[in-house]
Amino acid sequence: MQFVLNLVSALYAAAFAVSGFMLARLVLPSDRLIKQIMFGLCAGLVMLLWLPVLPSFLIGFGLASQLIALAAAAGIGVLSAVLGKGRAKTGKFELKRERALIAVCVPLIIVGGVLMGNHYITSASNGSLHVGQCTYGDLCMHLGFITSISVQKTFPPTYSILPGTQLGYPFLCDSISSTFYTLGSSLRWATLLPSLYAYITVVLGVYLFFEDWFRRDSIAALATVLFFIGGGFGFAYFFDNAKTYAGLATPEAWNNWINEVYGTRVSTEWGASLNMGQRLLTGWYKTPTNYVDLGLRWVNSIADMLLPQRATLFGWALLFPALQLLRRAVFDNEKRLFIALGVLAGAMPLVHTHSFFALGLISAFLFAARLIGMLKTEKDAAKSKERSSGLRYFFLFGVIAAALAAPQLFGFTFRQSSAGGFLKWHFNWCNESDSFIWFYVKNLGFIFILMLPAFIVTERKNKLFYGGALLIWAVCEFIVFQPNTYDNNKLLFVWFAMTCGIVSELIIKAWEKLTRAEKGGSSRFAVRAAAFVCFAALILSMTLSGVMTLAREYVSGDHIGIEAGSIRNKETGYEVVSADLVAVTDWIKENTDPHATILTATNHNNAVAMLTGRDIVCGSPTFLHFHGVDYSERYYNVQRLYEDPASCFDKLAAEYGIDYVLLGSWEYGSYAVDSGFFSGLTPVFSSGGNTLYAVGRG
After folding, report:
1. What's the CA gap between 463 and 502, in Å, rounded?
2. Taking 90 as the threshold, does the pLDDT of residue 403 lie above it?
3. Which of 210, 199, 224, 205 is nearest to 104 (CA)?
4. Which of 640, 643, 652, 583 is closest to 163 using CA atoms?
5. From the CB of residue 409, how many other CB atoms can be counted at a distance below 10 Å?
6. Residue 636's pLDDT is what?
7. pLDDT at residue 267, as a whole number
8. In terms of Cα–Cα distance, which of 115, 194, 188, 197 is closest to 147?
């Protein structure tokens, strides 16, 4: 039965994708098929994010809202098909034309899909739930949002980990999964399905953005690889014994290096099988792209941005298609695209505020540049008229985006950010150990080193487009936009993406110039050989840190691996919920009111909040502090309730509406629990060392 419900959810998502494709063919009739598919996925995703939400403000987030959304999406698709009939000029999918896209995007999609598959709550053989390294933190919060929105059906949603507080976080990245959970899919599938949808859209969007910008498959391919896998010189910290590893051609030398990096030696056909050791990449966040003690803070796009940060994942699925529309509208004079761009931009704030802000900064820069350009050419009447027309469309884009975004910003985002800590002066981002330049050199490597020469040699319109990215970088080096300084990287990665573009253009053009040297015989061969070696070494140095990080991330979750010469499933993932707590949450889901409040510990991996959707008295400060909400009183009172219940339990239980109390490993490990007091309550379920008590019974 569960398989059928999961299939229904997949078909539901497919219906939105098809509707989006019909809309894309209507709006972009002359684009080739793969672009229409990408923009169609993006449009379908916007509808999937927003259409179930809009009726929920009136009738709650229930099954009716999902069916209304489906009907609306079907209507948009049919209307688009009718209006666009005969307009689309694209032909069939041409494999030869899309070889570079396939060669780059398919492997990246597979890598992301595999990592999502072994990072999103896998069930272990003992009944516990496992995740990977990068999803051990934020995923717990997102699962709580997903389940509470679906189970409680209250809209706008409130924090289940801080009851009574409106959820100002961009919650559409989670309500989209709540849709599938409401339709009956498993929590794992509800989390995984829209994430895969968005991830595919991101990968295609990034590649086609670069291809549209530079008009070259080779540049688009390299830029895409650098954005998703590129990194700095962090790998050098794992090769710090040159003497030992100078002879990597020997099996034993490779074994030494593998042991140094992965914390284990491998068995080779020569029979070498040595002791296991705890080394860098088996540790907690000790990777070449994320190792705070070494000042390595420029994380990998897939492992640390797209997998754990759902708002970023869905935000980028909208952002990169929007950047392509912006570039085309401004530089290719496709002014009508400003209207579609305005709608797309206006849909962003409650998906990912940082993506909305990044697009706004780039757009503002280009608008100012267009305005200045018009003023400089007033004597040219024809050009002045054309620029004036462009400015009017630019202004229309801003009006549409602002009109759609304003209710989201003023109704949710600004209300929460006004609590304090969201806007402050801070120089040098999260660099705490290095000089300004060296920090970026070691974190971004040749991508940063080549940034300036790439900017100098690229053509003028590319400089202008890239100028918006430089503005983002400059702003982020002086202003912090949220309590966590590190989170500025959600803006900085847009600068990074566009830097990957101009650097890839420089590398590809240098490669072509060297390999086209007009020398004959052995001299020409020597030039080509030298160019190949340099190019290969350069690309290796720019991607090795990312590859090592992704390898570590894969083995951090339950995965298929080789052990003792055989292929088997290795349950190496981090246990996020024990089997006993899974049993407790199953009972809660089946036997308690959806709006029940349960007293638990405030651990970040709170099983009740994650898996049941019920309210708890207070959740983890790890999440609440960085959301800028005041949790201090409830947090303090949780401790009082467990440690000194005789003096406060009756009053606080009534104030907070507590229906149940959980005593288990997290509670006993976090507080000096007064077990004698709670023994007077009625136990309703017990599993292992975890007991759930009803309040006011018996």
Report:
1. 9
2. yes
3. 224
4. 652
5. 16
6. 96
7. 46
8. 188
Measured CA to CA, the distance from residue 606 to residue 398 in angstroms comes to 42
Distance CA 338, CA 33 (A): 21
Token code pair at residue 319 = 């952002």
Written as one letter, the residue type at 60 is: G
Residue 244: pLDDT band by 50, 70, 90 thresholds? very low
Instruction: Please provide the size of the chain in residues.
Output: 698
**Per-residue pLDDT, 275:** 32
Q: Strand pairing of 574-577 and 129-131?
A: antiparallel
* Backbone φ and ψ of 605, nearest 5°: -95, 60
pLDDT at site 91: 65
Would the pTM of this model clear 0.90, i.e. be above it?
Answer: yes
Closest CA to 314 of 407, 223, 191: 191
Pairing verdict, β 559-563 and 566-570: antiparallel
Tokens matching residue 268: 């080779």
Terminal-to-terminal C-alpha distance of the chain: 38
Residue 191 corresponds to which tokens in the numbers above?
A: 């989390």
**Contact criterion met (CB below 8 Å) for 495 and 469:** yes
Phi-psi bin for 164: left (phi > 0), alpha (psi -120 to 50), beta?
left
Q: Is the pLDDT of residue 653 over 60?
A: yes
Q: What is the dihedral of CA 39, 41, 47, 53, to 10 degrees?
A: -130
* Other beta carbons within 10 Å of 602: 25
Which backbone phi and psi does 285 adopt, to 5 degrees? 50, 60
Distance CA 156, CA 614 (A): 16
Ranges of each domain in the chain: 101-131+187-232+288-560, 578-694
Residue 127 · residue 586 · CB < 8 Å: no
User: 349 in helix, strand or coil?
Assistant: coil
Q: Long-range contacts for 426-435 (Cβ within 8 Å, ≥24 apart)?
A: 426/478, 426/479, 426/480, 426/485, 427/477, 427/478, 428/477, 429/297, 429/476, 429/477, 429/485, 429/488, 429/489, 429/492, 430/297, 430/485, 430/486, 430/488, 430/489, 431/295, 431/297, 432/295, 433/295, 434/295
DSSP element (H, E) containing 691: strand 690-694
Per the listing, tokens 């809202």 go with 65
Mean pLDDT of the chain: 89
Digit-coded pLDDT (tens) for 140-186: 999 999 999 999 999 999 999 999 999 988 999 999 999 999 999 99
Which tokens go with 234?
Answer: 């962090």
Rounded Cα–Cα distance for residues 603 and 624 (Å): 12
- Render pLDDT for 570-594 as a digit per residue (tens, 0 to 9): 898 999 999 999 999 999 999 999 9
Answer yes or no: is pLDDT of 638 > 90: yes
Share of the chain above pLDDT 70, in %: 88
CA dihedral 148, 149, 150, 153 (to 10 degrees): 110
Question: For residue 182, what are the CA distances in angstroms to 125, 177, 198?
Answer: 27, 9, 19
pLDDT average, residue stretch 398-425: 82
